[in-house]
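Bench notes, bay 3.
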Amino acid sequence: MLKKITLLRDRVEDWTAYPFSVPTIASLAEIGSRVVFFAGENGTGKSTLLEAVAAHDGFGPEGGNRNFRSDTTGHNHSIHPLVMALQLSFDRRTGEGFFLRAESFFNMASELDELGPAVLGAYGGQSLHARSHGETFFTLLEHKVSAEWFVSPGRAGSSALAAASACVSRLDA
């Protein structure tokens, strides 16, 4: 499990360039809590930090598990300097995990459909497109909850918050 995120300030070359120009990122020192909720206005760096943590831990820039490497736009790489400046500490690494990025989740679900039944079995046995938005989040929780989670809600914040809350509830049970 991830136990600490540290920004190694000596690895930052230009504090005026994105993503370090975002005040939340610029003021980051260390996060060392088991469960963390990022809340704030649009543009404050919540998703930027989560995307960098997920990328640092080996997840594709558009979400999914570590076997999913979808990368459809060069804009995904704008966080690379932040990825290189982070240090992640773990108390246990399982190799499992899931990065839920709402903006590109539709593309990931479409790719799962393309890969077919053998892969869909790990996601409940049917297309994620054949479920409601909420059912899709809960399907992911049901089949991926034992792993680390990075949730970047995008515009689907309330659904992602509900999913994260359910995840915490299941882990606490």
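Next record in the batch:
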Amino acid sequence: MKNTDFIPNAVLDANVLYPIHLRDFACWLQWQGAHRMFWSLELGTELRRALNRANSDHQLGDRVWRQLNQAFPDNLKDLHPKVPIGLPDADDEHVAQLASQFQCELVTFNLRDFPAELLKPIVVRHPDEYFLDLVRNYPLQSIESIHSMRLARHKIPVTNEQLLEALAQNRLPRTAAQLSRLGGQY
């Protein structure tokens, strides 16, 4: 059992959990003890809708959500709504409120939808910045996460380089570059 008392806690917005490679990397990093994610039913609804809408398999979102909660049952948190923050998109309120409620970072590609002046003391970060910090602070867990991702893809084998390219293509170029620099340790 890993000591998770002092690891980063984060709410990953649905747009971060949507791409399979980012979702897998985030999950493997949690299994390795490098961070802990929190989500709510509202975030799950948003993720499920996006996955179901964008795929010919209209049950994919439901399966992914069920698998996330089976793998990490303690990550699902009850959201205690507060007074609206006044975000540009009212549909994002639940994400900010969850981060506020659990005093953790909010990780999203949509930085403009979460203005810092409205969210203090919540730290809002781009996924590349967040994951790059995890890789720098937890290099062994990060390497093991990539290795585990590769091994889990036994039906369609991939190389570490292909996984790093997939992370870079999913808007984590600096994270992928840092993992590549650590590549001699794979």
